[in-house]
TrEMBL record:
It comes from Candidatus Marimicrobium litorale. One of its GO terms (biological process) is proteolysis. InterPro entries: Lon_prtase_N, Lon_prtase_N_sf, PUA-like_sf. Keywords: Hydrolase, Protease. Residues 1-195 form the Lon N-terminal domain. This is ATP-dependent protease.
Length: 198
């Protein structure tokens, strides 16, 4: 068990996935500064209910039971004057309890999960890689500069979940799946549904 500063989000961060964020709240500017200085991750956890920006007198957000360690891989000053960062998902963690510092930053008591060993991409999952390669042609995805092992089913599946247009609650469920075969099978079903809607 260890303490990890948390960045609650309405979006889900997957291992190997990348997300661009705009930082403007002082507590998160400090979090980013500390993370970059110490080269240590912070935790991204999905907000089940509530708001990302805390309001005085409002109940705090209800967070998920697990999340993903986030590493800052890029940063820049945006045209609007805000700090822009790109985070990449690392290990998953289970979240057991939280406390809130005086500046509003949430600290989690977490247990880091071991990274699942690489699983070679099966023939049945080859279509997942084809779709990922297709998505990577999009300029928005190219800007994320993904670094993936395309022979590892976990990395291909997680990257797809990160990029595909689906409800964040579903992404959260998929993040919690511990078996790569189940995850790949669920993705195949979802992709058929998505293509059938177009």
């Amino acid at each position: 068990m260890m303490e990890l500063p948390l960045f609650p989000l309405s979006g889900v961060l997957l291992p190997y996935g990348r997300l661009p964020l705009q930082i403007f709240e002082p507590r998160y500017l400090d979090l980013v500064k500390d993370s970059m200085k110490s080269e240590s991750p912070f935790g991204v956890v999905w907000i089940r209910r509530g708001a990302e920006v805390a309001e005085r007198g409002r109940a705090s957000a209800e967070l998920g039971d697990y999340g993903t360690c986030a590493h800052i891989v890029d940063w820049d000053q945006l045209d609007n004057g805000l700090l822009g960062i790109t985070i990449e998902g690392g290990e998953c963690f289970d979240l057991f309890e939280t406390s809130t510092r005086s500046d509003g930053l949430v600290i989690g008591q977490v247990e880091i999960q071991p990274t699942p060993p690489a699983v070679r991409l099966s023939e049945e999952s080859q279509s997942l890689l084809d779709i990922l390669r297709s998505l990577e042609q999009h300029p928005h995805v190219q800007r994320l500069n993904l670094r993936l092992d395309y022979n590892d089913s976990w990395q291909v599946a997680y990257a797809l979940v990160q990029l595909l247009p689906m409800d964040e609650a579903l992404k959260y469920e998929l993040l919690g799946m511990a078996d790569i075969n189940d995850l790949a099978a669920e993705l195949q079903v979802l992709l058929k549904q998505i293509s059938g809607e177009n």
